[in-house]
Amino acid sequence: MVELSLINQQLFKIIEVKLPRRILLYGPPGTGKTLIARAMANETGAFFFLIHGSEKMSKLPGESELNLRKAFEKAKKNAPAIIFIDELDVIAPKREKSHDEIEHRFVLQLLTLMEDIQQCSHVIVMAATNRPNSINPALRRFALEINIGIPDVVARLEILCIHTKNMKLGDDVDLVQIANETYGYVGADLASLCSKAALQ
């Protein structure tokens, strides 16, 4: 439905349905949070702007906020667009965990921009974190929070099929068995497993 809102704005105006413009993806590392956001942008043809939390922080006063404003302005100019903020907990930790004035100003700027983006129906803000409980409470204003958990056996089999579709598998390779034996593996683990197997 979120994808459809980027493709067909007029439809949702007619039925008077307000869709979430701020979405938080949370879950263990390697479960594909960034991949999901990229896939959504690819499916809708939306401009994709990735903000890496650790890369956007600058020690120079005001530079981090300026970079953030430029990112949001660029997304608006290229709408429909998805702004994806990775490692949100790194740039916006809980206040008791942050004693950095630069981080505080950055969080305030991000809050302002996220409020403003609510008026822009062609832009969606998505964020990802491995530690949702470590995010500054002021930023827990996402209309939709989605838990991207560890894949079950069916999902693991699908992931294995995707990563091996262009590989020539031996007759003794049983993807169903591998899926059953890889409990606890996330998408990144399975991708690595397939890559290593291909090099054998």
From TrEMBL:
Keyword Nucleotide-binding appears in the UniProt entry: yes
Extract the GO molecular function terms from the UniProt entry.
ATP binding; ATP hydrolysis activity
By its UniProt entry, which InterPro entries does this protein fall under? AAA+_ATPase, AAA_lid_3, ATPase_AAA_core, CDC48c, P-loop_NTPase
Provide the AAA+ ATPase domain boundaries.
19-152
Q: Which domain of life is it from?
A: Eukaryota
SUPFAM superfamilies, per database record: P-loop containing nucleoside triphosphate hydrolases
Provide the organism lineage as a comma list: Eukaryota, Metazoa, Spiralia, Gnathifera, Rotifera
Provide this UniProt record's keywords sorted from A to Z: ATP-binding, Nucleotide-binding
The name on file for this protein is AAA+ ATPase domain-containing protein
